[in-house]
Amino acid sequence: MGIDSHKDLIVWQKSMDLVEMIYRLIKKLPGDEKYSLSDQMRRAAVSIPSNIAEGKSRNSKREYKWFIGVAKGSLAELETQLKEINRSKQWQTTKNQV
To answer: Which of 39, 49, 67, 70 is the most buried (most CB within 10 A)?
Structure first.
């Protein structure tokens, strides 16, 4: 069994799981964080499997690598947003203790 489409790629499957996790996380965010970061997080998360799929469907390895690079950039963007949420939570905890 070979890799016939992007759906056969484990990285695409895992990135689709990540999208679902991000959507569940966004629902749990407090109001201020939900509105400030949720759209950016959704776009970044969805961009990861989307770019993997588009790259896999292209005609050359060069194009595929380029789209993988874009997906990696979206992953870094999402990671940054998740770290910001974590930092914000720590700040709120510290602020409430002072």
So the answer is: 49
pTM of the predicted model, to two decimals? 0.86
CB atoms closer than 10 angstroms to residue 47: 19
Supply 50's token pair.
């989307």
CA distance 10 to 65: 16
Query: pLDDT tens digits for 27-67?
Result: 888 776 667 788 999 999 999 999 999 999 998 999 999 99
